[in-house]
Design goal:
- With 232 residues, the chain is mostly helical.
- The longest helix is centred in the middle third of the chain and has 26 residues.
- The two termini are 33 Å apart.
- The model has no long low-confidence stretch (mean pLDDT 79).
Length: 232
């Protein structure tokens, strides 16, 4: 289970995700990420046999509609790059891989043999080794003669965007209910879309804006419904 979770969670998820990012804009990709909480609810119902309310299923359909509007809505990005249907679909596929990874890790932790820290360490380390093997086998050693700005960006993504954020997320879960934390998780697509517009000068079409609002709204409904269920 560790190896399957590692394979799906690291090389498969990130290779597909980055292939999608090349073919779409930052704003589109960020808004598509808003589908993740709803996909997770559906996956939990089908594979973990968790109870999903009618409200959550309505949110799932709404989120799917929103994702469709994002995928088909026109958008331009940095240097005139265009969001494409293929790019959006690849990002969506990477989210499905993320759901599979989350459910597998959840099963590992429920077994009582692994804490959240050890499960994450085993899966991420094994997955990274698989990714290294794939890269060396298909493209050879990665370049090391990079500019200082590129190295700073790589270190920042690894240290700040992955290590520190994962630690802060787990620490936060120990302080607040998971449903409350889920609402903050749903800020990710909003922040990503805003940064895409402000920093990379992405331009969202009207369908992208409406689709993004539907996705984010559905994700918030799922998180709030989870909190109400736990309160009862």
């Amino acid at each position: 289970m560790i190896l399957i979770g590692a394979l799906v969670g690291v090389p498969i998820q990130f290779l597909i995700q980055f292939a999608g990012l090349v073919r779409t804009t930052v704003s589109h990709a960020s808004l598509m990420v808003g589908v993740l909480p709803v996909l997770l609810a559906a996956g939990s119902a089908m594979f973990a046999h968790e109870h999903v309310t009618v409200k959550r299923w309505i949110a799932l359909l709404t989120s799917t509609l929103g994702a469709g509007l994002i995928a088909f809505g026109a958008s331009t990005g940095e240097a005139g790059s265009q969001a494409t249907l293929l790019g959006d679909l690849l990002v969506a596929a990477s989210l499905i891989a993320a759901v599979v990874w989350i459910l597998l890790v959840q099963v590992m932790m429920k077994s009582g043999r692994y804490t959240p820290i050890t499960a994450s360490a085993y899966v991420m380390t094994s997955g990274t080794l698989m990714l290294v093997i794939w890269i060396f086998a298909t493209e050879g050693p990665p370049p090391v003669h990079l500019s200082a700005l590129t190295w700073v960006s790589v270190v920042a993504m690894g240290l700040l965007a992955t290590t520190v954020t994962t630690y802060l997320w787990n620490w936060g879960l120990a302080q607040v209910p998971a449903s409350q934390a889920g609402v903050f998780l749903n800020l990710e697509p909003v922040v990503g879309a805003i940064l895409g517009v402000l920093v990379l000068h992405d331009v969202l079409g009207p369908y992208g804006v409406v689709g993004g609002l539907l996705v984010i709204g559905a994700a918030i409904v799922v998180a709030m419904d989870e909190g109400e269920s736990k309160a009862r």
